[in-house]
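Lecture notes, part 5. Sequence design as translation. It can be helpful to think of inverse folding as translation between two languages: the language of shapes and the language of residues. The source text, in structure tokens, appears below.
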């Protein structure tokens, strides 16, 4: 009986299995997962961000307008919370947050991480984080000098492989999920096309697209950065964009990169806008966000420093 239990325990960590967490798609502008923090758990919806490393949530210490309509973590109501009073400050492409660091238990579905570093916000200037569902953010960046919750999962033996994968559906569809510790084979078909990470920060990849040569993946970013406006009547005739990565050709149809929100002039806005940082290391610099990731089953493999793409099932 003990051997069978051990074999079952090992089998759940197969690279083709893992721990799934359902995601909520908020108007194609962001994907949120429900997590519990503390003992007993206090629940929050967090945005998953591959461009930063810190897990933080709104707290009772925050008086900003952005915190007023969201769930707030109260460390005094958790018997497992520990504080070190270390401050943190993060500036994103849009929005910023300041707060203090603590440690507590984090749960996601069947996952249980007992000593996770958590940021408790004290200030969130502006209204970027005021949108519904945004109780906080879970950083999943690939940075050697900064640990994420994936690193904590590995250290505590919660998962065996430092892998997480995204399946993102459109706004009117259900079923979006993130999987930690493996993949969900039912969500994709064929082989996974692997692309090596060029630099171990922010999951930076080499991309070929006409005159575009470098991309940056960001699961928090809802728009590819490039700029176009199209007549809505022309969308069906627009060509797909083809991204070549490590020999694999990944096609993005116009129905994906043009947002169907016709204005009074009959124009549709593109999900491709200009980057605030146009060049890095002498090469054009793109951030490939949810609009791109939605078209593929996307796997982030930290242990092998690579990102994988597979055709959706």
């Amino acid at each position: 009986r003990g051997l069978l239990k051990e074999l079952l325990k090992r089998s759940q960590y197969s690279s083709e299995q893992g721990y799934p967490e359902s995601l909520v798609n908020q108007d194609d502008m962001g994907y949120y997962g429900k997590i519990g923090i503390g003992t007993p758990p206090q629940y929050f919806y967090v945005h998953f961000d591959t461009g930063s490393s810190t897990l933080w949530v709104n707290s009772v210490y925050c008086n900003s307008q952005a915190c007023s309509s969201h769930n707030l973590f109260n460390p005094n109501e958790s018997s497992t919370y520990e504080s070190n009073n270390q401050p943190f400050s993060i500036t994103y492409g849009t929005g910023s947050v300041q707060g203090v660091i603590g440690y507590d238990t984090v749960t996601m579905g069947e996952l249980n991480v007992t000593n996770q570093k958590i940021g408790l916000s004290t200030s969130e200037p502006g209204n970027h984080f005021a949108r519904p569902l945004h109780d906080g953010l879970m950083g999943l960046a690939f940075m050697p000098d900064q640990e994420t919750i994936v690193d904590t999962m590995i250290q505590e033996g919660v998962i065996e492989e430092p892998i997480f994968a995204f399946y993102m559906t459109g706004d009117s569809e259900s079923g979006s999920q993130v999987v930690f510790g493996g993949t969900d084979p039912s969500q994709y078909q064929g082989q996974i096309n692997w692309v090596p990470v060029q630099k171990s920060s922010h999951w930076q990849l080499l991309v070929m697209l006409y005159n575009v040569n470098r991309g940056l993946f960001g699961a928090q970013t809802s728009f590819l950065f490039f700029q176009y406006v199209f007549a809505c009547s022309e969308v069906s005739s627009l060509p797909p964009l083809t991204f070549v990565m490590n020999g694999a050709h990944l096609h993005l149809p116009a129905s994906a990169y043009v947002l169907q929100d016709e204005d009074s002039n009959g124009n549709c806005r593109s999900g491709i806008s200009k980057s605030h940082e146009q060049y890095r290391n002498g090469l054009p610099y793109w951030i490939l966000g949810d609009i791109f990731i939605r078209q593929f089953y996307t796997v982030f493999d930290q242990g092998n420093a690579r990102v994988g793409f597979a055709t959706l099932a």
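The translated text above is only one of many valid answers, since several sequences can fold into similar shapes. Confidence is low (pLDDT under 50) at residues 1-14.
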